[in-house]
Specification:
- The structure is a single chain.
- By secondary structure, the chain is of the alpha/beta class.
- The protein folds into two domains: about 5-100 and about 295-330, ornithine cyclodeaminase, domain 1; about 120-290, Rossmann fold, CATH 3.40.50.720.
- About 35% of the residues lie in helices and about 25% in strands.
- The protein has an eight-stranded parallel β-sheet with strand order 9-8-7-10-11-14-12-13. Strands 2-3-4-5-6-1-15 form a seven-stranded mixed β-sheet.
- Helix 2 packs across helix 3, helix 2 (about 20-35) crosses helix 11 and helix 3 packs parallel to helix 4 (about 135-145).
- It is globular and about 60 Å long.
């Protein structure tokens, strides 16, 4: 790659990497994580009245990349940036606006998890939530399973109707707006939640036909999407990262406590990928909790950076050497 530092906007990112590309990148990253060639830096969180800030770090030793995503969210909005480095030299490679990056990697982990953990014959899908992430979640699910229909629920009738109308143009299967979460989940094989719920709203009896429950909303310690009885129903528990789940998942913390020694039986997705796991058979429920991890961002960001250099996409910034900076300072 060029010595120039790339600045990549949201539009630049989606122009060079597709959701399918992101799924492939995450599969490769999970194999590296399982082998010990890649590692997360645990998420750091800070909060104040009306706002919160986060940082996710990671390194892929084999691929030679390291990076951090940092973001701030307030009642009035938020922003995020990903900083990509060469893991061998420490040189800055790129700065990426990180909203699209987050959409890609969150949906991609759902795609990988659904492909690995859902029965091959799953036909009826369900999405709870119609925010920015929901359309990408739908793309990820439908890329790995062939649905006969997908039910949709969010609390605002206009939003769920609008979502179904917009998204139905992309798919051959119908999208059905439902008046309640119970109606949307009734008969569903795969249920995906992507909400900012502050209190749990899903009970085990609402998942009576569900084979895979993908919970990728509620990634802050004060938020929750499902009640504790879901753990009693689930025969398999999977997370993307144990430490991030321990730090940030209210649901899992309430069940297993703060000490990871007590989290026996909770699997990680990288181990399942490494062992070529197959979707389970039978009527058991698999629960996958995706918290978001730095390696997911890094896997997509490094691919974006490579593609951007290959296609001359984005703004190229000439690097500053230490000597140049010192001279400029002295002359000033």
């Amino acid at each position: 790659m060029s010595e120039h530092v790339k600045y990549l906007t949201e539009a630049d990112i989606v122009s060079v990497v597709s959701p399918a590309d992101a799924v492939d990148a995450l599969r490769k990253m999970l194999l590296e994580k399982a082998s010990g060639e890649a590692q997360n830096v645990p998420k750091s969180l800070g909060a104040w009245t009306g706002g919160a800030m986060h940082s996710l770090g990671s390194v892929m030793h084999g691929a030679g990349f390291a990076g951090f995503k940092t973001w701030v969210r307030t009642d009035k909005g938020g922003g995020s940036i990903f900083t990509l480095f060469n893991a061998e030299t420490g040189k800055l490679l790129a700065l990426l606006e990180a909203r699209a990056l987050g959409l890609l990697r969150t949906s991609a982990i759902t795609g990988v998890a659904t492909d690995l953990l859902a029965p091959q014959d799953a036909k009826i899908g369900c999405i709870i939530g119609t925010g920015d992430q929901a359309s990408m979640q739908l793309r990820a699910m439908s890329a790995v399973r062939t649905f006969s229909e997908v039910r949709v629920f969010s609390p605002t009738p206009e939003r769920r109707a609008s979502f179904c109308e917009r998204q139905s143009q992309r798919y051959e299967f119908p999208l059905i707006p439902c008046e309640s979460a119970e109606a949307a989940m009734d008969g569903a094989d795969i249920v995906t939640t992507i909400t900012r719920a502050s209190e749990p709203f899903i009970h085990a009896d609402m998942l009576s036909t569900c084979k895979l429950f993908v919970a990728v909303g509620a990634i802050l310690p004060k938020r929750a999407e499902f009640h504790q009885d879901v753990f009693d129903k689930a025969s398999r528990l999977v997370v993307d990262d144990l430490e991030n789940a321990r730090r940030g998942s209210r649901e899992f913390r309430e069940k297993f406590g703060d000490d990871l020694a007590g989290w026996k039986g909770v699997e990680t997705l990288d181990k399942i990928v490494a062992h070529a796991g197959q979707p389970p058979e039978g009527d058991g429920l698999t629960l996958f909790k995706g918290m978001g991890m730095g390696l997911s961002d890094l896997a997509v960001a490094s691919l974006v950076c490579r593609r951007a250099h290959e296609t001359d996409t984005g703004l190229s910034i000439a690097p500053q050497t230490r000597e140049n900076l010192l001279e400029a300072d002295l002359e000033g």
